[in-house]
Amino acid sequence: MIGLVIVSHSAKIADGVADLARGMAGADLPVAAAGGLDDPAILGTDAMRVLSAIEAVYSADGVLVLVDLGSAVLSAETALDFLSDEMRPRVLLCPAPLVEGAVAAAVAARAGQSLEQAAAAARDALASKGGLFAESPAPPPPAAPADHSITITVPNRLGLHARPAARLVEIASRFHADIHLRDLTNGREASARSFNALMLLGAVGGHALDVSSSGADAEGALAAVQAFAAANFGDPPDESLSPPITQPSAPASVEGRLRGLAASPGFAIGVAKHYGAALPDVSAPAGDAQAESAALLAAVERASANVEAQRAQTERQPTGSSAAGIFAAHLAFLRDANVRDAALTLIDEQHLSAAAAWKATTDRIIAQYQQMDDAYLRARAADVQALQGQVLAELLGAPARPTLSEPGILIARDLTPAEVGAFDPALALGIACAEGSPTAHAAILARMLGIPAVVGLGADILAVGDGAPLILDGIAGEVLVNPDDAERGAYAQKADTYRREADSALQASAQPAHTSDGARIEVYANVAGADDAARAVTLGAEGVGVLRTEFIFMRRETAPTADQQYDAYRAVAVALDGRPLVIRTLDVGGDKPLPYLGQPHEANPFLGLRGVRLSLAYPDLFRAQLTAIARLAAEFPVRAMFPMIATLDEFRAAKALLDAARAECDAPPIPTGMMVEVPAAVESAATFAREVDFFSIGTNDLTQYVFAAERGSPQVAALSDALHPAILRMIARVADAGRAQGKPTAVCGEMVSDPAAIPLLVGLGVAELSMSAAAIPQAKAVIRQVARPDAEALAPAALALESAAEVRQLVRERFGAGQAPMT
Amino acid sequence: MDAITTEVVTRWLAAYAEIIAANAAYLTDLDAAIGDADHGANMNRGMQAVIAKLGAAPSGDIAAILKLVAMTLISTVGGSAGPLYGTLFLQMSANAKGDLSLADWTAAFEAGVKGLQARGKSAPGEKTMLDALFPALDALKASADLPLHDALLKSADAAAAGRDATIPMLATKGRASYLGERSIGHQDPGATSAALLLQALADVTA
Predict the structure, then answer these.
(1) A9 vs B84: CB contact, 8 Å cut-off?
(2) Are the beta carbons of A822 and A759 closer than 8 angstroms?
(3) Which residues of A touch B81 (CB under 8 A)?
(4) Residue B119 is nearest to which of A38, A46, A74, comparing CB atoms?
(5) Contact with chain A for residue B35, Cβ under 8 A
(6) Whole-angstrom Cα distance, residue A203 to residue A335?
């Protein structure tokens, strides 16, 4: 790739233009800024700076130098005189407009164009801008500005699939200008405001897209689209353009053995469980059009809320943020005004009921997807089908799917991502679908949950009797019905081998994580029970950083006794096999009242009696828990942690109760820490640091309290980003306060699962991270790529930024290459 | 005195730095009329940096000193004068060997002026430094038979006359060219600082 050098009298301009170029073409674009003089107060150009910049980005592909005014040209020319004879012929000075030229050249560079092509693109960069202004007639009203357009090549293999389409809609929504896409390869067109239209565009890897925009901020809009394309449409690099995966069509089934498509690897041996649901009947007559319209909008709204809730729930679950991205795509579909308006038009003009109009509209879209050439896009029909059913269920009520009570291999025509996401891997041994696609979101979720799945088995699988013995091979894509003993034996062995291989793949995660310069970062799991803990250990957890004890207090009529709690905590400790266990005392509030306490109703339970406040208000309840912890501490490496501490008095009172419980059962001293999640605790961290044994920063609640924004509320959820410098500064203060007293600081909370957070936390001096178990292998991989000096240089820079977006950008720039993919 | 020695060059640069410092405001005022009002400040910053560097590394022959001046001006002046004066000194450096007789100096100066002309893609008559430097070069060539100091005086006088001749010129190069006709009637600051350069050399060889 060619390199770019930006020469300006102003260092700020040069840096800014270089940023713009990187924004267009990605952080790894070789671009160097040569602005200003050594004295930052003086505007001017320095040929020696230009020389160093050229040398910094030089490769055999060449370097294009863009300059601003007067002396910039002379300085750049002077710099050329100092270049080696070998370099000089491959360095071009370009008489292009600086900003437009740099952007055009960056795009050309990213596209792999030659030095001369990039120079030409840069020189011509004003032409399109000229077009914008040249025609505009004199005073008001200004005529609509001429179209602005760019051509991009779809960078990622799957193209504008659900997640990129949803992102693109979101990007388009930031601009007033309309953005229109035309797929030059297949001739289809779409507005970037319509998720559905984008999906149906059929723009897959390698297609050329003409992206045009008109409106005041059209250029910015196009720049944003271009940057998005440069970022591989948000897909990880391994999803970038490469030969499409060939998808064999499902061959015909044979006796006793049904063949389908492997959708999620692994083996399941068990009995068949039918898991069916039909679409409700939509033939009921329509009522008043206005009422039907209102009913439809309300149903879509409720379905959206459900998806939103599922997304929030999925984010908290081990399946991680990828699954949440799928739900985000579903939300984008439900919020697509084009779809909604089409259904409302049917209600108005054809007097259909809300349900019939929704079904007709979505049926048409499903049919469109099913006609797509691309297998991935065809598979999106299942997503629309799922949403069709969800909205219809809101309108008419739907036959509920059976709940699983015992283990089995689930048989269904097809499953929605929501259904798969709700499966308990302990009960859903395998999934066998008559229809569906390995690239459907439901299949992706199955893989993330580790549930073996075969899809596209055909109607035969639906004819299998409930309770029939089955073997499901999620690798070969087969299901054996009524297998004989020999087959059972063979598959039991295969399953065993598979498990062992999967285990060895996890072994890297079983090793401790050190930064690339050798600093040990301890990685713990947040768990809610012994099963969780056992799973966390297999994924590489070095212990439990937060045992959420709520599990033993909920869904029961009486308070758990100390004995019951001891047994429950002991099971976790046993699962950890000697690894440290941090037990967080009860953390509930009025939003989830415990029936046996009779908590007073509160208008605002999140600011009410919760966490340690509640424990201190119900000392008998608290004492039972502390006794259980103290007893366990005599046998296992246990630490105690109090949630929602706001004042030193609270901590002292809780600690005194723990000490009393400890004295009663003659337990050894128990390291005792606090959650830092109330802003007051951050302010008083230095005071607390004298008395606590450790801090654990709960970034989820801290972020909510700091931004006064509930994450569950879609209108304000975006405010609560733990990567915001406001939160990072608080983490820094707590870690500093802890360090001053020799007390370690851990961070638990969703942010730790975000690879971007890890270099920041390492740089802030956090040496313990606690996260959902599934995030641990990736987190360890990221830690191993981080060099502490780099992280320590990154942290102060991040603290000085203005927004979470800037922080993410900075991390991408500094650690982009070393980052494990964020899917 | 019949040769320009290291010591002469050192005194020349010190004298030029002094003259520039004394005339910084004047040069900037000239530049304010037709340019971007920074020529005096830029040249003063550049020459002060030159003096500081020479003080830190006093040894070296004339070629080394002239190269040091070139590199320093290139990096510190900031405006067009940086690469232009830098090129002048760099080319002089490349053509200076040992102490300089009048003929040596004339040859080195010619190389410098030609280099500057190439860098600026300019010709005499366009209201630039060249309008002082070319007459100075011509005067030097015409004074080949004179004693060194006399020849340098003639070149300084010619540079001053050339500088004055820029007043009625129409600028077609550099920032002043943006003014078009309005550049007429103003003395060119680059020609002025160039004339001072030759004045300083004449002064220190007296």
Answers:
(1) no
(2) no
(3) 71
(4) A74
(5) no
(6) 21
> Order of strands across the sheet with A91-94?
A31-35, A3-8, A63-67, A91-94
- A815 or B165, higher pLDDT: B165
Say yes or no for a CB contact (<8 Å) between B119 and A77. Answer: yes
Distance in angstroms (rounded) separating the CA atoms of residues A201 and A195: 10
CA distances from A91 to A20, A73, A74, A78, B6 (A): 21, 14, 15, 13, 37
Active site residue A748: yes
Block mean pLDDT (10 aa), chain A, length 823: 92 90 82 89 89 91 89 88 87 88 82 81 70 41 57 85 79 85 86 81 86 86 89 71 35 61 88 75 82 91 85 59 69 87 90 91 84 70 80 76 80 81 86 80 74 85 82 91 90 87 69 90 90 84 93 84 94 94 93 83 88 95 96 94 97 96 91 97 96 95 90 69 94 96 92 87 93 80 89 94 91 65 32
Tokens found for residue A440: 């459907």
CA distance A46 to A38: 9
Residue A83 Cα, gap to closest chain B Cα (Å): 14
Collect all residues with Cβ–Cβ distance below 8 Å to A119 and sequence separation of at least 6.
A64, A92, A94, A96, A105
| Structure tokens belonging to residue A547 | 């045992």
Sign of the Cα torsion A125, A5, A795, A780 reads: positive
Catalytic, out of A330, A441, A514, A601: A441
CB contact under 8 A, B84 and A37: no
Q: Report yes or no: A148 and A218 within 8 Å, Cβ to Cβ.
A: yes
- Closest Cβ–Cβ partner in A37, A44, A78 for B119: A78
| A212 has a chain B CB within 8 A of its CB | no
Cα distances from B61 to residues B9, B89, B205, in angstroms, run: 10, 14, 18
